[in-house]
Every structure is written in C-alpha cells, then in structure tokens.
Amino acid sequence: MTTTPDTTAATQTTTLLRFATAGSVDDGKSTLVGRLLHDAKAILADQLEAVTRTSAERGFVGGEFDFALLTDGLRAEREQGITIDVAYRYFATDRRSFILADCPGHVQYTRNMVTGATTADAVVVLIDARTGATEQTRRHLTVVQRLGIAHVIVAINKIDLLGYDHVAYAKVEAEVKELAEEIGLDTAHLIPVSALAGDNVAAASENTPWYSGPSLLELLETLPSKEEDTADLEPFRLDVQSVLRPQGGLAPGLDPEQFRDYRAVTGQVTSGRVHLGDEIDVHPAGVTTTVIGIDTADGPLESAGAPLSVALRLADDIDTARGTVLAAAGTLPQPRKIVRAEVFPFTAEGLRSGDRVLVKAGTSTVKAIVTIESRRNFATSASEPAEVLAGNDIGIAEVKLATALPVADFGEHGRSGGFLIIDPQTGATVAAGIHTPAEEGLG
Q1: Would you say 282 and 326 are in contact if contact means Cβ atoms under 8 Å apart?
Q2: Residue 421, phi then psi, degrees to nearest 5
Q3: What is the pTM of this model?
Q4: Are 193 and 8 a contacting pair, CB within 8 Å?
Q5: What's the CATH number of domain 9-230, 3.40.50.150, 3.40.50.300, 3.40.50.880, 1.10.150.120?
Q6: Under 8 Å CB-to-CB from 211, ≥6 apart: which residues?
Q7: Bond into 284 cis (ω within 30)
Q8: 359 backbone φψ class: left, alpha, beta (φ>0; ψ -120 to 50)
Q9: Rounded distance, CA 164 to CA 303, Å?
Q10: Homologous superfamily of 237-328 in CATH?
Q11: Mind listing the pLDDT tens digit for each residue in 268-302?
C-alpha cells in the first residue's frame, strides 16, 4: 500500500485526468470537491458570489460559505443537503486539466457511483475520521477494486474534529489498510484531510506535521492517466461504427483518383495503437488484413491510439458492418456464447435468473439469457449463492449469448471486457457487466 508517492517536478504533466469522488453520505464529498475547486481558483466570481449569498441564507456567518454548493447543482439536492446524482465539473491548474465526478453517497445510488467511476483514472473515497469505514465504504472500495481503477485515494476527512490527533488518525488508517487487504485492493493512497478547513486539500497543512505525503491536489496533479499507463501496452482494438463510402466531397488529404474508390471502416480506437502497415484480425469475417490508411477529420495519420475516432482503409475488400471488431493480429479473444461476468444492476428491480435481455458489447447488440450465480455480502465481503441481484448488489452471473462475441477479460483489457445489459421491452439499461474468468470472481 502506497501512502507517499513521488511528486517531484520531474513528474509534472499537462495531460487530462478524470477522477471521481465517493463515500458514505455526509462524509463530505461535495464539500471536499467544492474546497478543491475553490483552492484551485477554478470558481468564477459570479458563482462564488451566488454561493456566498445562498450560504448566508443557510446561516453561514463571518464570510464563510457552504463549499458543497459549488458542486451540488440540482435544486432537489440543495433542498435536501445531499447529492443524489453524479455532478460533473471541469477545471484546470497550471500543471493539469481535470474532469471530476462527484458521486452520490446513499446506498440506493450506488449505481450512480459505478457510472461515475467507470471512466475514471482515479477515485477519491472519503471516510469520516470519527466513524471510520462503514458498509458503504466497503461497497465503494469493492466497486473500484472490481472495476480495476488504477489509482485509489482514501481521504480520511474531518480530522479537525479529532483535534488533528495522530493516534486517532492512525487507528482509522490501520482499519482502512486492513479492509483494503481483505477485498484485494492492492494500492491505495491515504491522506488525512479536512474539507471544511482545507487541510491537505490543495496544500500541505501545518496542523498535520506527522503526515509527510502530498496534498490531495498535488497527488492528482502527478498521477498518470489511463492513456499514460497503457498507451502502448494494450493490443489495438476498434469496434466498427459504420462503413464509409462518401458520395460527394473529398476526404482530407486524398487526391481525386484515390477518393473515387474510397472505402473505410469507422469507429473509436478502444485500446492500444494502430500503425500503417499493421496486420489486423477481423471478426466475424475470420480473416486477417493490413491497414493501408488512417484518416481523420484533420487529415491522414501514420498511427492512431485510443481514444481517437478514425476511418481505417484496409488492403482487402472484407464484408464489414456495425458490430465488426478489428484487433491486432493474434490478439482477438476467442468469440464465446457464454460469458461469466461480474454484474452491477442499475435499476431497483435488479436482475434475476432466467431474465431475457439484450447485451451490448462494443457496437454489437445480441439477445441473451442471464443466470445469477452469487452476490457479495458487503458486511463480510464473502460471496453467497443467489438467484436475484437487487438494485445495489454486486454479483456473478452467467450470460448466455445468442451470437458469439469476442468479449475480452476485463481485468486484462478493461473497456473491451465490459458490456451493458438492456431490457428488450423498454430499452432501459438494466445493468453493467464485466467479463471475469472463473478463478478471479467473487469469493
């Protein structure tokens, strides 16, 4: 477990980092994000004035204001004093740009936390230093562990209410480390903070001389993003959105003679990087071909990596359409009709064995039947046999597909191992699933 990562000037970056905040209700997530935005000087003057005025109406005096108002954008949230949906905010410092997602803390909104964390490079989980880890803390840490979030930051909040006592903080820290080890969370950064007072949020606090690590903002400014972590490590994969055969105009960078027979497959690079001359496998055609052109709206490229959207010209005239999968030669997973998956229900009704659904993986949508195997007990972290997964459960299910799909192992390939489960009658998203080999499931 890492608590004091290197934050030297050599690690400075100007890239984009996506991060989410999570934690039990009233642990101070929105206040922390508001403080972070304020101390990073990412608040417009008129917004600050409005928040100050609203804070005064709520009883804040002496120029103080409610930092949570800087992120709680929904009227219902303001009236209840809680966060009930994922609130996205964008800001930047001199060292990095950020997209943050402030996720809800109530148990019934865990599905929103899953949504906010799915695309995150890092997740900040808050814990009230007075109460320590709760069942919802266990739930959130389990979610980020199962989603394979590379960087998990545990912010032990409200240390000002403990009088900045190191012994009291150390007890909570030991509890969190034990919990992380129990659920298999390999790496977490622990930071003592006070969202209200600003301790260790944007800068190191004099009130915690016993803590020598970075502040929260300093850590966020130096963590590598997913793109930096895996830019050239993962194999190339692209899920085809459409086939491009222009009827008029001229593709950027192409001469009229070349444009006359122009044909390309379009889509977003899901992982890895593709270069001119690379050999790729095509599913479901079952053939191998060569990339002879990489086109974008700004012109042709020599190579393209995730998450760029491109049009690829192929050496051979292959039958392709929406749902076709392109991958670096020799790396395409064996297409399968039965997928064992960890499932995160999104609706109150959840899922039950025998449900007939649609599965959307990449750009393919196929019929499927779900069989529930087990659910996680968050009080014990153990796996229990089950036939139903309720709205905020996490469990293992067997998903039998009508058509074989090359679904990857989520643990190794991330996004290409994930899929959505859809109600065929309403079109609503019922759950998210990630392909999990049998030996790596819950238990």
Answers
A1: yes
A2: -110, 125
A3: 0.76
A4: no
A5: 3.40.50.300
A6: 191, 192, 200, 204, 205
A7: yes
A8: beta
A9: 52
A10: Translation factors (2.40.30.10)
A11: 998 899 999 999 999 999 999 999 999 998 899 99
